[in-house]
Specification:
Oligomer: single chain
Radius of gyration: 19 Å
Shape: globular
Low-confidence stretches: none
Largest sheet: 4 strands, antiparallel
Strand order of the largest sheet: 7-1-8-9
Mean pLDDT: 93
C-alpha cells in the first residue's frame, strides 16, 4: 500500500495469524472480530482463479442469489416499455423507463445499483454502454439481467443477487454480507457463492482453480482461506 497503516489497523493485524490458513468457520469468526468501523461493514470475499480471462473460454462470470441477502438495500432500474414496464413496477423496481431513463443516465444521473433490460431494449441501452459498462451496471444475459422475465430479475436483485466477473488478472471480489450477520448466515452465503464459482469452472482452466482466497471487512486486513476447502464446496 505504500502508506503506513493506522494504529487501529495495526491492532487489527495483531488479531490475525499471518502464518495460518483459515477454515471457513475460523475465517468467519475471526473477521467478525475485526469490526472497528462505526458503520456495519461489508464482509468481502476475494478470490484469485487459475484462469486467463483474455481467452473467451476461460471467462468466469455470472450471478448468484445469496440465501441471506447482502444486507444492502439494492435500487433496481429496469429498461422496459408497455406491459413489461408495468410488470417491473408491480414487482418492486425502483426506476422504470426507456428513452427517458437513457437520457437521465447520459446527463449523469445514475441512481441505482443493478440495471435490468428486456431484450428488445438492448439496442437503446447500448447507447449508454460506455457509461454503464465501466461501472459494472450493463445488463447482461449471463447474469440474468437481460430477460423477458423482469419480475423474477427484480425479485432476485432485491433478494441479494450478486453479479460477478473475473478481472484481467483472474480476480473476483464480492460482498457476501455484513459484519452484523450471524456466523451461520455468513458461512451459508460464502458457500453458496463459492459453489457457483466452482460450477462455472471453465474446462480450459489448468492447474489449481482457486489459487488464493481471502476474507475481510471493508476497513480490516484480510485472513487467508483454505483454497482446498473452497474447491470442495459443491452446489
Amino acid at each position: 500500500m505504500g502508506k503506513k497503516h493506522s494504529k487501529r489497523y495495526q491492532q487489527l493485524l495483531e488479531k490475525i495469524d499471518k502464518n495460518k490458513v483459515y477454515s471457513v468457520d475460523e475465517a468467519v469468526e475471526t473477521v467478525k472480530n475485526l469490526k472497528s468501523a462505526k458503520f456495519d461493514e461489508t464482509v468481502e470475499l476475494a478470490l484469485r482463479l487459475g484462469v486467463d480471462p483474455r481467452h473467451a473460454d476461460q471467462m468466469v462470470r455470472g450471478s448468484v442469489v445469496l440465501p441471506h441477502g447482502t444486507g444492502k438495500e439494492v435500487r433496481v432500474a429496469v429498461f422496459a416499455k408497455g406491459a413489461k414496464a408495468d410488470e417491473a413496477k408491480e414487482c418492486g423496481a425502483d426506476i422504470v423507463g426507456a428513452e427517458d431513463l437513457v437520457e437521465e443516465i447520459q446527463n449523469g444521473k445514475i441512481d441505482f445499483d443493478i440495471a435490468i433490460a428486456t431484450p428488445d431494449m438492448m439496442g437503446l441501452v447500448g447507447k449508454i454502454g460506455r457509461i454503464l459498462g465501466p461501472k459494472g451496471l450493463m445488463p447482461n444475459p449471463k447474469t440474468g439481467t437481460v430477460t423477458m422475465d423482469v419480475c423474477k430479475a427484480v425479485k432476485n436483485a432485491k433478494a441479494g443477487q450478486v453479479n460477478f466477473r473475473v478481472d484481467k488478472k483472474g480476480n473476483i471480489h464480492a460482498g457476501i454480507g455484513k459484519a452484523s450477520f450471524s456466523p451461520e448466515a455468513l458461512k451459508e452465503n460464502l458457500e453458496t457463492f463459492v459453489a457457483q464459482i466452482n460450477k462455472l469452472k471453465p474446462a480450459a482452466s489448468k492447474g489449481r482453480y482457486i489459487r488464493h482466497a481471502a476474507l475481510s471487512l471493508t476497513m480490516s486486513p484480510a485472513v487467508e482461506l483454505n483454497t482446498q476447502e473452497l474447491m470442495d464446496i459443491k452446489a
